[in-house]
Every structure is written in structure tokens, then in C-alpha cells.
Amino acid sequence: MQKWIMSGVFVVACALAIVLMFTLPGKEQVAEEQKPTMPAVELDATAAEATVKANCISCHGDQLQGSVGPNLQKIGSELTVDDIYKTITKGKGGMMPSFKDKLKDTEIANVAKWLSEKK
């Protein structure tokens, strides 16, 4: 009886291992998720300002002067457009939330371009 139970547990463990092998993301997929690529967009300053006003001023201030979040008035001289895009997309620690589920990739890219010109 004990052999049957152990055999059953072994078979279930092997089946679970096989399922996990084919469903867990690979190294390439994990690397891609960690390094989002910015889509090509043409800067629309009006839309970027509207997006920032709707999503960012509560932490970064109405003039981007900083409040709970850092000052963004000259962020373009500190970070590249890709770095800004990645930060908005993924978030940063517990303070900066991820906006990948709240904004479209093109909206994030437009805001990143707009902020990158703040120098």
C-alpha cells in the first residue's frame, strides 16, 4: 500500500514538473519584460501634458516641481528618453507605481519624450 502511495506522489510530482517546464517563462521572456522597448511615437506635447496632469501631478506637483515624488522639471538632463519610459512603465521601488496597466504604451512613450525635453 505504501509503495502505491509513493508511486502516485512521484507520478504527480513528475507531471507537475513537466507542466511547469512548459508554462514558466524562459530567460528571454523575463529579460524582455524587465527591459521594455519604447514604441516609436511623434511627440504630441498637448496630449503629454494632459496625461501628466491626469496621472502625475498628485506626486510630482502641478509644475513638476516635486512633492511626494521627485522634481521632474529638468529630468531630461538626468535621464534618457528610454530610461524615463522604463521608469514610467515598470515603476521604481515602492514610491513610483507602474503605469503599464493604466496607460497605453504610446501614451507612456509620448510622456517620456515630453519629459526628456525638460532640460
From TrEMBL:
It comes from the Bacteria. It comes from Paenibacillus sediminis. This is Cytochrome c550. Residues 43-119 form the Cytochrome c domain. Keywords: Electron transport, Heme, Iron, Metal-binding, Transport.
